[in-house]
Amino acid sequence: MFDKWLDLEEQFNRGVISRRQLLANAVKFGMTTTAAYAFVGAVSHPRGVLANEVVGARAASGETLNAVMITIQRAGDLGPVDAMISGLNRGASELNYNVRVVEALQGEYQGALEASAAENPDLILGLFPPMADPLERAAKQFPDVYFANLVGIVPEGTPNLKSVWHKGQEGTYLAGALAGMISTEQLLGVESDTLGVVLAVENGEQHGYLAGYQQGFKATNANGQVIFNVIGGNAPFEDPVKAAQLAAVLRERGAGIIGTSGGKSQHGVLSAAGRSGYLALGMDNDQCPQYPDTCIASTLVHLDQWVYDVMNQVRTSSFTPGHNQVGLVEGAIDICPFADADHKLGSQLPKVIVDTIANMREQILSGEIKVSETPEL
After folding, report:
1. Is there a single domain that holds both residue 200 and residue 218?
2. Structural domain contains residue 204
């Protein structure tokens, strides 16, 4: 009877069937959804020993802890997922954790959480807003496991559950203000007072980014206007082709600079900038080194540090449940060092522009500038 499971494993390892097909066949052969997820996890991430041999009570300082990261966006995005995996790996190295990453497809979120929690890890990290409700349910079902929703919002009141959300508008405000000065002075070949923005979806996070771009751009360009469009669809953060197409539409509508909103999709906007005749603003990581001829600056979202901080809280028994919002003051958001010598475009800008952005940054830190998260739609 076990031959069919071994055959599925062999087909998956040879690339004959996909992860989704592996899951479907496991259910077809009589597994419950939870068991099927556990099987898929075992095939795609083989363990050296059984779970009950490595997971124990909350660790003392020298004991190895176990953490699972569940992402609804695929790794390899050169953006938020890769950044959070980097933080996970840093935590594994510096804080003595065994870690693994699970990529959950739409419709799999609850099953992936329950299957992972059934292994009794110390911490489960669920990424992005759609994981909030499944995490809340899992946290109540597995009270001995810590859960965290990164880039999400969970309700208060569950002692083993927290969320971290960011004031992304503070970073895009600075990027928008920089774009506004470049367009006003017609620098770097920009001859338009229009800033375009390609959003992935319409939700709180993406609206915050748009709001920051709008307020920053108009703060430094009195004649400026901000236009935007939305990728949407089944994989809005993983569709660089559509993102590039939408950026071209914004260019046709007059945008000289186009801002991105993160994920793998942003690379469609960034890579198409040269041939479509616009400059771009990156997101998540510093995209300027990868696109030196077209990326002016990037909004930095230090997601790797968020992951590390939660892992450290579990390690030091200082886990704080509930919702946490972080921004420039907390070091969670920033603008890249766009004027450094290794930034081709930004290093060409007049010092007064660089200093203006530095002063605006200080004004956000001091509270003199308050950036609304509500955009003009």
Report:
1. yes
2. yes
